[in-house]
Amino acid sequence: MQKGNARTFIIDEDEIYCEDRGDGEPLLLLHGFGGTHDDWRHVFDLDALAERYRVITPDARGHGRSTHRHGVFSFGRLSLDAFALLDHLGVDRVRAVGMSLGAKTLLHVATREPARVSRMILVSATPRFPDATRALFRAAAGATHSDEEWAAMRAQHAHGDAQIDALWKLPATFGADRDDMNFTTERLGIITARTLIVAGDRDPLYPVELAVELYRGIIGSSLWVVPGGGHGPIFAAERDEFVQRALPFLDGG
What we know:
Blueprint: E1 5-11, E2 14-21, E3 25-30, H1 46-49, E4 53-58, H2 75-89, E5 94-99, H3 101-112, E6 117-123, H4 131-141, H5 147-156, H6 160-176, H7 185-188, E7 194-200, H8 208-217, E8 222-226, H9 239-251
Parallel strand pairs: 3-4, 3-5, 5-6, 6-7, 7-8
Antiparallel strand pairs: 1-2, 2-4
Helix pairs in contact: 2-3, 4-6
């Protein structure tokens, strides 16, 4: 696989890393929590995708090669990073795919500045965090991690063990915040992007009823519930069907 044009931008005093490949219409891919831009190679053939799109794959603040030294981490803040990144790249309007953390970021992007997103795919998104999910977040933030888990994270994240430890503690912030993820039907109705919502019907974090809530709130959206799918049902055995559905949707006018 050919590497994209690697670039790092200073956004709010932090370094945000991004790879940029291809020359077509811009397609923004936002990875999930604890991951990096490189996760998308497990979903798409990025070389082939770059033949039809300008593929933009950043590392979210605090992930991979991007830093997070300043301010409170939130999905709203990540949306501001996305706007700043697109401005640096000279991109006014995108198609986009977001996975979990990336999908929640896209909800903020598409409600703050609806005209900047023409089409988007939200994978394992939610309009809000139920109390049961908040309890899972708190438990995750207090968990210990094996040597194998540390090794896997060190292979992905470039800024040392302090960065990794901060990532593992972040779910406590998610669990405590009541404002950042609070998308009412009225707020979702602001979205103008054609939207495909993808949800696993066995997602332990976000029950399928939350995907239906998004579907009902986002005007004209489509919903694909993946049978037997967990959180992030776009990898491994579920990859091919996702790609077969995602590409025609993204290609639509």
